[in-house]
Amino acid sequence: MTPTEEYYLKIRNKLDDLGYLQPLSFESVLLVDKLLEDLLNTKKGLQHYKNVAQQSMEACSELQAGVGPFKVDNAKLIKENNDLRQKLLKSREAIEDTKVGPNKKREEPKVDKEQML
Q1: pLDDT tens track of the chain, all 117 residues?
Q2: Angle at Cα 64 formed by Cα 59 and Cα 67, nearest 5°?
Q3: What family classification does the UniProt entry report for this protein (predicted)?
Q4: At 109, is the secondary structure helix, strand, or coil?
């Protein structure tokens, strides 16, 4: 068997393994070999990036699971902070009421809504 025939059979076997059973002429062997090489490289690259994506998804899931308790704590702390802020404002109003006295008119304190949030 000549080297050309061996090369042809090598390419033919690769194509058969991949399920490409169509006829292959000797004239197109070089082109088919290059295309087959590109196909296999692309397939390897695709598999690599699928693995990278899977690892990224797993890492993201782990991070999200770790953040869960902090979200609960954060919600509790925000509520506690808002409650304390309201108590502080009421205490300030009570102090102002005692300073102003019963007969004098008291000015309403100007509270910025953004500060309350």
Answers
A1: 899 899 999 999 999 999 999 999 999 999 999 999 999 999 999 999 999 999 999 999 999 999 988 999 999 999 999 999 999 999 999 998 888 765 555 555 566 666 655
A2: 130
A3: Belongs to the CEP135/TSGA10 family.
A4: coil
Q: Is residue 29 within 8 Å of residue 11, measured between CB atoms?
A: yes
Query: Domain residue spans in the chain?
Result: 3-99
**What CA–CA distance (Å, rounded) separates 1 from 82?**
87
Give the integer Cα–Cα distance in Å for 91 and 115. Answer: 16
User: Rounded to an integer, what distance in angstroms lies between the CA atom of residue 117 and that of residue 79?
Assistant: 10
Task: Report residue 20: phi and psi, to 5°.
Answer: -95, 95
> What span, in angstroms and rounded, lies between the C-alpha atoms of 76 and 64?
19
For residue 28, give the DSSP letter. G
